[in-house]
Design goal:
Blueprint lengths: L2 E4 L6 E4 L2 E4 L7 E5 L2 E5 L1 H4 L4 H6 L9 E4 L6 H13 L3 E4 L3 H11 L10 H13 L3 H10 L4 H6 L2 H13 L31 H4 L4 H14 L4 H15 L3 H6 L8 H17 L9 H14 L3 H13 L6 H4 L14 H16 L3 H4 L2 H21 L7 H10 L9 H13 L5 H8 L9 H8 L6 H15 L11 H24 L8 H22 L12 H16 L9 H17 L1
Parallel strand pairs: 3-5, 4-6
Antiparallel strand pairs: 1-7, 2-3, 4-5
Helix pairs in contact: 3-4, 4-5, 6-8, 8-10, 10-13, 13-14, 14-15, 15-17, 17-19, 17-20, 19-21, 23-24, 25-26, 25-27, 26-28, 27-28
């Protein structure tokens, strides 16, 4: 940081109560009041250099003491004192931190070269042009101090000249950067990296006020020299510098420290950053967009900003990772730890955009891969949020059902998420379990996962029966000896025994001369006996889940169809039509009676 030293005399100013004066044998004849400070000074060193004081003291005699009030001087008493010390020849240091206030005060007092050659304004402007504007950090620091005197700085051209100098240096090719800059990325050391990084300027610029930062970014974008990704990196650095962290939002949401003033400031910063994001896809990461979206919900940004963030995040949703989605809920009414509503909103927007594609485009490998990546992402996300004790079944199911069928190549990841949810919520009701497992398609599970599922005691009985039924269909074509036990294999031996018992009972009940029984009565008797034996058999078998025959007609017919199909399996062919199987069982029963 460069500075300019003016004057050689020692500083003899001192304070006595609310009065500032300097050690002198000459009595003070100029009293100047600035805010709450009173200065006791002398006319002879100040009037020759200050055109304003000359005009104000024009009507007074040389021996007369004059009192003036300069409450509106820019920079206040500190800036005035710099000007007064310059007039007295007292040593002062001018740097980027006090240049703006000193120049504004000198302009206010009319300390121009027209009043006296080599005056204060001329020296300050020379320092500004030759030192401050030539330096990188000096230009940043000077521009930053203009926020205290925005109108004066704008009118004097300080803001414009500083911005032009900063932009010129930012657009300089990295190999030509010779000035000092701040770069504190993790793992980066200048000793190990001799080349200048492309984003060398982003950290220093992030120290500026949001309005000044916006002026620089928009000016850089208008040149079309830097790539959109570099602009996005600057926005990311600025957001990390000024916006509060998500965990801080969660903990201080109801604290006094999070005042309305700071909330309004952060809201303005976030909305300004969103408005500056380049339209190019990938200019910022999807994780950064989710972070802004999560903060925006807490800060209560405009609906336009929130909608834009959701749209931008949905465009890059397939690039996201699970960690990009794991933001805590900032809503006071939401009991969940994770903000699933945020993820659901982005997912729904993504699906709307995806469905707008032409039918030909949707069938292409790129769009299929895109929707598959999103489906896998959501299933992995569900496995994480399933561990939340307060996660409601309705929200879990809603998020899982939003994913279209084409987005899942199989249901293995979804099963894992459901299994985790069942383990973490052991007190679930039967209705909730049924609703949760209803989103699972048993036919789309791999053999390994299906083998685990049929032994899973947490699953409801209906799901296990479906798994066994589909395993039977696949098992009829399999040649491996390591197969799951099928329902017809389990029931076959018991069915043969039941059939033998029925034959012996039938012969015993017929006796001599009873062979001409009516065929209809025989069929009714066989059906009643079959129902009784099937009911006893199903109760006797445990199948690990106590497969109890339901009282409704559909499940009873399903059990009959399954038993008859097992009998027909001895012929090497499985008939999957329940009605045909029942008719075949009846014909076999009549044939046995006639014999």
């Amino acid at each position: 940081m460069k500075f300019m030293k003016l004057g050689t005399k020692a500083d003899t100013f001192y304070t006595e109560q609310a009065t500032r004066t300097l050690i002198s044998e000459i009595a003070a004849d100029l009293v100047i009041q600035i805010n709450d400070i009173t200065y006791l000074l002398h006319k002879f060193p100040l009037l020759p250099k200050c055109g304003l004081l000359q005009r104000l003291c024009y009507d007074s005699s040389d021996s007369e003491s004059v009192s003036l009030e300069l409450h509106d001087i820019p920079g206040g008493e500190e800036a005035f004192e710099l000007c007064a010390k310059f007039c007295y020849g007292i040593a002062i240091n001018i740097s980027a931190h006090n240049f703006v206030s000193a120049l504004c005060a000198a302009k206010f007092l009319r300390m121009n070269d027209s009043i006296e050659k080599g005056n204060f304004v001329g020296k300050l402007e020379s320092f500004f042009n030759s030192c401050i504007l030539e330096g990188w950090k000096d230009s940043i620091a000077t521009l930053q101090t203009t926020a205290t005197l925005p109108e004066w700085s704008e009118n004097l051209g300080i803001v414009r000249k500083c911005i032009d100098s900063i932009i010129e240096k930012i657009l300089t090719p990295p190999p030509q950067v010779k000035w000092s800059y701040t770069y504190t990325r993790p793992g980066y050391t200048k000793k190990q990296h001799h080349s200048v990084p492309k984003d060398w300027w982003t950290e220093d610029v992030s120290d500026l006020d949001i309005d000044l930062f916006r002026c620089i970014i928009m000016a850089i974008r208008s040149t079309y020299v830097l790539p959109p990704q570099l602009i996005g990196e600057a926005l990311h650095v600025y957001a990390c510098r000024w916006l509060p962290g998500i965990t801080k939002l969660k903990s201080s949401g109801s604290s006094v420290s999070q005042t309305q003033e700071s909330k309004d400031k952060n809201r303005k910063i976030l909305e300004t950053i969103v408005s500056m994001i380049p339209a190019d896809r990938g200019s910022v990461s999807v994780g950064f967009l989710f972070r802004l979206l999560s903060i925006s919900i807490h800060l209560g940004v405009s609906s336009v900003t929130k909608t834009e963030l959701i749209r931008r995040a949905s465009l890059q949703f397939e690039e996201a990772t699970v960690s990009d989605l794991l933001y805590p809920s900032t809503s006071s009414s939401d009991q969940n730890y994770y903000d699933t509503e945020l993820v659901l909103a982005v997912l729904e927007t993504f699906l709307k955009l995806w469905k707008r594609m032409s039918p030909g485009a949707v069938d292409s490998s790129y769009f299929l891969r895109s929707i598959r990546n999103v489906g896998k992402l959501i299933d992995s996300y569900l496995q994480v949020v399933a561990r939340d004790d307060n996660m409601q079944v309705s929200k879990f199911v809603s998020l899982a059902e939003t994913v279209p069928s084409i987005a899942r190549e199989d249901h293995d990841d979804l099963y894992q998420a459901i299994n985790i949810y069942l383990k973490m919520h052991p007190e679930m009701s039967k209705a909730d379990k049924k609703r949760l497992c209803g989103i699972l398609d048993c036919q789309r599970l791999s053999p390994e996962v299906r083998g685990h599922a049929v032994k899973n005691e947490l699953l409801p009985l209906r799901t296990v029966v479906q798994l066994l039924y589909f395993e039977q269909e696949k098992g009829s074509k399999a040649t491996s000896s390591h197969k799951l036990p099928k329902p017809h294999e389990i029931l076959l031996g018991a069915k043969d025994r039941a059939a033998t018992t029925r034959d012996s009972q039938s012969k015993h009940s017929l006796g001599p001369g009873k062979e001409e029984f009516n065929g209809e009565e025989i069929r009714e008797r066989d059906q009643q006996k079959t129902k009784r034996s099937d009911g006893k058999l199903a109760l006797a078998l445990n199948l690990e889940k106590k497969m109890v025959i339901r009282g409704d007609i559909e499940e009873t017919q399903s059990e009959k169809a399954r038993v008859v199909r097992d009998e027909s399996s001895s012929s090497g062919k499985v008939n999957m039509d329940p009605k045909k199987m029942i008719r075949r069982a009846r014909s076999k029963s009549e044939h046995g009676v006639k014999k």
